[in-house]
């Protein structure tokens, strides 16, 4: 390999070394850690304020009290609608009829004693969700992600920003996204959504929110503090190793290879070699489930001057409904669910979505790639809700859950804070981002209120197929 030069964002020249030159550099340069089990850096001190977090957890989650100053909107009209005899019957009929067909059942696989927690989790994935409400292996899997030894690290091919594939000692794998900035760094005002930095804490928070919303369509994600020297550098592939360096501040850094932000000027640095990351459990292999990627009908233009068609046509949903897949179907209702999650976290980057091939068109939409969420605490991007306000269509169960969360004595922000307390990187979100969830939940319900005012109830809600069949039989 010959020497080449490449210019980074700061106009500094990087020299790409040959394999032989790199080996010589490793041997002779004492600043660059060798592949070893020992860190050459002083361990970071534990963060302060843990006792205050524990006290807040007890006050808010263990012994919660009603807030006399709670001024949340009560949405009496929507509550009254749920009390309607016909709507209530069909709602509970949908809930009661909900069944799960799992990957294990489709393949008729007998569970063996030597399977990993991740393999067991894969077998429990169903056509309606990633895991059931009473899933027994989820906590064990998340414990593995938090604590299990890492034996190999490689770069994930493709993508605009750096992601690493982590292999654990039991052979299971996870997708790692590193921390680039601290919690206070928001999306730069002049950055478009398609060049925004990805945030590791957004991936963690989105998993918890997806679970609270009752979707359970996001693979498990946990936060973890890694030692770059012993847990990444020591077990990384050679091509990644070549991008490591020690910064002028004496922190260990690397940048890997990707489309954006993979150069010296945008390196990922430890403190001094401790790094926060998110770890998302790997999805099943194609041989077990397969995945299909679909273009999102409401994808953005990804251009700094052009607008997408849905941004200029108020009746765009009618065009989408011309395709049988979206003609008031479960798929359209699932897409609206994804939209609601994206709006709550502020994620504008949803150009495609994925489903499991094994379940055909009945597969739920996987909730993946939430790294560009929680970037603007004080801005609510209403355009994300276009599928909802243009189609006025939603799962009756989602409508019910959103209203429950609005009327619950504990706010959505409190439920999230209590859930996130369990994560090793707690606090995962700043209070401003948690409070934004309460504000955005109310916005979603206001949109639904307007939809119901303008349309018949039957046209707004999607019920289980079997429930509608029973209703038609009763009419006969």
From TrEMBL:
Gene Ontology MF annotations: ATP binding; metal ion binding; protein serine/threonine kinase activity
Xref: Pfam families: Fam20C (PF06702)
Protein's name according to its UniProt entry: FAM20 C-terminal domain-containing protein
Compartments, record wording: Golgi apparatus
Active-site residues per Swiss-Prot or TrEMBL entry: 349
Keywords, alphabetical: ATP-binding, Disulfide bond, Glycoprotein, Golgi apparatus, Manganese, Metal-binding, Nucleotide-binding
GO cellular component entries: Golgi apparatus
InterPro entries the record matches: FAM20, FAM20_C
Predominant location category: Golgi
Residue segments, region Disordered: 27-48
Binding site for ATP: 161, 177, 198, 280-283, 354, 369
Family: Belongs to the FAM20 family.
Domain of life: Eukaryota
Cofactors demanded by this protein: Mn(2+)
Residue ranges of domain FAM20 C-terminal in the record: 244-460
Sequence positions that bind Mn(2+): 198, 369
